[in-house]
Specification:
This protein has one domain. The protein is built from 1 helix and 3 strands; from the N terminus they run αβββ. It has one helix at 3-24, and strands at 28-32, 38-42, 47-49. Strands 1-2-3 form a 3-stranded antiparallel β-sheet, with helices on one face.
């Protein structure tokens, strides 16, 4: 494998580990989809699109 493939595999494994941790802790992961939408994926498989209000801090 070359470096790009190795990096892609490492990124995938990191995401898989995050999903396992979310399931173990009954929480969610947040990521950006291929089309640029930021979503929350819960351990039960539900995916919720986040909007701008979700990112505002006071």
């Amino acid at each position: 494998m070359n470096r790009t493939q190795d990096l892609g595999k490492l990124i995938k494994l990191t995401g898989d580990r995050a999903k396992l941790d979310a399931k173990a802790n009954d929480t969610y992961i947040v990521y950006k989809t291929k089309v640029g939408t930021i979503v929350k994926e819960y351990s039960n498989g539900d995916i919720v699109r986040m909007n701008d209000q979700d990112f505002q801090h006071e």
